[in-house]
Design brief:
By secondary structure, this protein is of the alpha/beta class. The protein has two domains: about 1-155, P-loop containing nucleotide triphosphate hydrolases (Rossmann fold), CATH 3.40.50.300; about 165-290, no CATH class. Helices cover about 40% and strands about 20% of the residues. It contains eleven helices and nine strands. α2 links the parallel β2 (about 25-30) and β3 (about 50-55). It is globular and about 60 Å long. The two termini are about 40 Å apart. The relative contact order is 0.14.
């Protein structure tokens, strides 16, 4: 059975993620107490269920500490993937304010709601930290719901076993991706932004690609990143990791980083020699994906 555990900080988008799993045909359970997880899986096995997604948060406090061992037990006979959703504290405060919902760990008094909310978020982070370190982490701070659904859909194409490598472009203007394991700063490369004809385009567009691929420093940066990853991938696998996020950043996350992520991901995706090592490759573009969808 494929078991997908969705967890993370309250307000970071677990409901959106769970709906994406449901739309993909998974049996879904929301807000399941940790102590019932193994019983649920046993019941679903009897019912011949093949794929399940379960959302669990820290509302029941210290019982969340039992979850890593429960997951270890389940991994002995099932494919288990953990998806951890995160967001920065200011974004979470804004979301709770807009929805007028109370954080599951917040106090009861309205007068202390603001202070208790920050304390509740910090408490939840501490409780869930052991899960975050073994999960596929997604920072939703600047990610609209439609982009999160898209990222989950891409994740579902990936096999739960082995190492999943995510190449992610981003802009330093909006901060580092919190889930990044490796960060490459490519702001030293010539910037298409200063060409008025290229400014509104992205690193996916042909004119920008033609501009960048002619620059020796860009070609050298691309090759160096590829060589670094190829050299160290076996070591990350030996370390027992499930996920490795390689973040490549430029100033705005629109041209240089998008171009390099696209190129580097394309280099790895068709390789047969690494697929035997059970490595799955994904790519995403944080700033491009954060642009709201236009209704048609």
């Amino acid at each position: 059975m494929q078991i997908n555990l969705i967890t993370g900080i309250s307000g970071s988008g677990k409901s959106v993620a769970l709906r994406a799993f449901e739309d993909a045909g998974y049996d879904c359970v929301d807000n399941l107490p940790v102590t019932l997880l193994e019983n649920l899986i046993t019941t679903l096995e009897i019912e011949k269920s093949e794929r399940v997604a379960v959302a669990i948060d820290a509302r029941r406090g210290q019982s969340i500490a039992e979850l890593p061992q429960i997951l270890e037990n389940l991994r002995r006979s099932h494919d288990v993937r953990v998806v951890f959703l995160n967001a920065d504290t200011n974004t979470l405060i804004q979301r709770f304010s807009e929805t007028r919902r109370r954080h599951p760990l917040s106090g009861k008094t309205q007068e202390t709601q603001s202070a208790t909310l920050i304390e509740a978020i910090d408490t939840e982070r501490n409780l869930l930290e052991p899960l975050r370190t073994q999960a596929h982490s997604i920072d939703t701070s600047n990610l609209p719901a439609h982009a999160l659904r898209s990222w989950i859909q891409d994740l579902l194409k990936d096999k739960p076993q082995g190492l999943t490598v995510i190449f992610e472009s981003f802009g330093f203007k909006k901060g580092l991706p919190s889930e990044a394991d490796l960060v490459f700063d490519v702001r030293c490369l010539p910037n298409p932004h200063y060409d008025k004809a290229l400014r509104p385009l992205s690193g996916k567009d042909q004119p920008v690609r033609e501009f960048l691929e002619k620059i020796p420093e860009v070609v050298s940066m691309e090759n160096d990143i590829i060589q670094f990853i190829e050299k160290w991938l076996p070591h990350y696998i030996a370390d027992g990791r499930s996920y490795l996020t390689v973040a490549i950043g430029c100033t705005g996350g629109q041209h240089r980083s998008v171009y390099l992520v696209t190129r580097i991901a394309a280099h790895f995706l068709p390789q047969k020699d690494v697929s035997s090592l059970q490595i799955n490759f994904l790519s995403r573009h944080r700033e491009l994906d954060s642009i709201p969808a236009v209704a048609i």
